[in-house]
Amino acid sequence: MRRFEIPVRPLVQSGVAVSIGLLVGALFMVIFGYDPIRAYYSLFMGAFGSIPDFVETMAFATPLMLTAITFAIGVKTGLFNIGAEGQMYLGAIGAVAVGGAITLPAGLHVAAATIFAMLLGAIWSLPAAFLKIRMGVHEVVSTIMFNWIAFHFAIYLAIYYLAEPGRAERTLPALPSAQYPRLMEEATLTAVIFVVLAFCIGVYILLWGTRVGYELRLAGTNPDAARYAGVSSWRMVLLSFVIGGFAAGLAGASQIIGRPPAWSLYATLGNVITLGFDGIGVALIGRNHPIGGILAAIFYGGLAHGGRYMEYDVGVSSELVRAINGLIVIALALPEIIAIIRRRLKR
Amino acid sequence: MRLRGKRIVGFLLALVIIVILGYGIEWAGLGVVGLVETGLLAMTPLALAAVGECINQKSGVVNIGLEGILLITAVTGVRGAELFRDGYFGLLTGLLTGAAIGFLFGIVSVYGRADQVVAGMGINIFALGFVPYLLMAIWAFPGIHIFPPELKVHPMYTPIGQLNAVTILAIIVSILAHVLLHKTLLGLRIKAAGEKPEAVDVAGVRVDRIRILTSTIGGALCGFGGAFLSLAWFGGMVKEISAGRGFIALACVVFAGLEPLLALAAALIFGFAEGFAFSVAVTPEIKRVMPGAFYFVNMIPYITTLMVVTVAIGRRRFPSASGKPYTRE
Asked: Testing the interface with A: which of B76, B104, B121 to mutate, by most A Cβ within 10 A?
């Protein structure tokens, strides 16, 4: 593996994009008569101001690290896989099915629920991979369609097969033997974070430390060279989708068997919805790198957790943080933004 | 020609599906008139968004942010209608908002030399958060807003059923777009900007202006469709109002190979699939016989999109400079 260097340029680019996103977000607050300074103060104090809050921020960051990997590994392989959302719903369903509806011995139960959720996530990624490989259907259209199909399918399963008797608004909660232990009384972070971090590091090692990972990246950066080198492009597409599906499935599981107090899936999917889309922004802020994705997920987890304080203290809808995420992505799409600003300054 | 063959197969398949759906509807006691009315309603925003996207993709600007534009303009359309106390002004507000977003997107992709797919996805993510924020900031109510019924853009009552003027306008726009692209000098330049931007530049025409113009037109048409969603169809605003329609419109564009008239045909197919799902979902008979069917009926538009795109895709040829920024040497 290469020698470790601090990647300055990407960090600066992400930093500039984040600043632009926050500034434009502040502008939207001013337009509607909110005080942006007070809003951001309560947001950042809420997200990082105390140890329990920081731990809670990590709980928000956990699923995003994974859905970011789904998108990032797609980009590394030359795909625009935005199917994390639907694969994550299926992962959540899988975790409920094994964690809530089946009894198993303590240690085995957690592992079985996690693995089944990951498998369902990967299985849900297969049709889009097949359509891409065999039919040439672009993954942007197909993965979005499968997301919406998964949305209705997951609600159907949650209501008709997995509902908690007497409480129609949610599914069976995960049994105690299937729950990851809580790390702190005051926050909802559980030991699932260690599984998630191990998964992210595993993907990093796979991509930069193995032959298969090299072939995956080659297929993304230089498809022609990959073809001449004898890399089978359909296998790389399939592998990229499947790893992404594992990640998204685990993300769904992390919100069921790794997130108190509900330990279950709401019938509206309310406690997992948009985590997949948020992951796209997180991946891009993290420069489509598994480790960068961890840092970006902590940043966005902070926005998501602190946003609730912002809503409570200043009345700004916490949904604004998602808009800021989009603005950051648009700003990141400008590769030359720093160069343009620099040229203007020199003039 | 294999391409044409596949296209014909696609159309035939779609026709068969529509006929089966028609019979299914009669069986459920719905009536074909209701289906046609809803189908045309559903077709309209899809056609507007898809035709606009055809125009900007011809010039080499790929905007996958249609979903986000539909969402944002559905809100601004309602706001405009409330401010001016008139539904048609609301549609105009939506159109102008869409044009502004398209213009900014054009600037970003031409001068910022942005990765257009990433920027377009940025619009979608932005809208996902900005729309609920707007709903709270303007009307102080989370996720939903119902406007006064007198602001609704009402359909015309013809002898064979209801028909919205905007639907006719959407069909006219598709024809005009076809004429623009294939019969005018500007259309030639738009196509050249997508195929060989150097040639356009050498001929003394500004590639950047053409691309920003088409991006603005594309955004405007999409915004018109977004305002139509809330003002003419739903009669209200919910934060998930677009429900993947922006991406279904993209599927229409792919299906059509950037031809506006084919995009209109695709929008008609998808519109009918959606109209069918919509009509079935509200039929009490079906709910009684199969209580869970509702969720599967909701999947019909998305499954239809996947099937039609898969069958029709063939070897579409897209402009060679598609999605690439152009720099003068």
From this structure: B121
